[in-house]
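Worked example

This section walks through a single chain of length 88. The input is the sequence exactly as stored; nothing has been trimmed or padded.
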Amino acid sequence: MQTSEPASVNQAAFIQLENNLGSIVMGIATSIRVVSSIVNAYAPPWSRNLNNNCKYHKETTGLHLHQLKEDSQDSLVRQDLQRRINMI
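Given that input, the structure is written out below as tokens.
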């Protein structure tokens, strides 16, 4: 059973394993190794080494830490501050 677009990576791995190995009986460790190598071949390159990705791409870029100063000279800040006071 060959599908043009498999529903998932696991289905694609199973179809390829079924086509290549057919009726060959093998151990569970070998089966796991073969399936994981097929799944890794279908995995996108950016998801293969997540530990490395997390190490070099930090979540804290500092942008979320930036807060606007409440400058009394800025009319928009004054209006926003006045709205906050009126809501209380």
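What to look for: Residues 46 and 52 are 10 Å apart (CA to CA).
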